[in-house]
Amino acid sequence: MRIEYHPAVETELREIIKYYNDCYAGLGNDFLNEFERQVLNIASNPLQWVEVEHGVRRALLRRFPYMVYFRIVSKNLLRITVVKRQRRHPLLGLKRK
Description:
The chain contains 2 helices and 5 strands; from the N terminus they run βααββββ. It has helices at 7-23, 27-44, and strands spanning 2-5, 50-53, 56-60, 66-74, 77-85.
């Protein structure tokens, strides 16, 4: 399955990685590795994740308090739309296509 990212996801990831690297050297890389593993898990079976709104599904990261929102665009295309902390407003980013 092909994976694409909403343009805002790159900025979100950069900010998260910077925050964790400022807390502890290398922790941002750990976050990125976990994010990438979770995206591969999502791509392998996207229907296993809970649908939070029509067409939008959510996957939680295990080690970090973050969520990944995504849409199944077609049979062969998945779009990551949001990466955010679990404590952020639940509607933040849900309207992204």
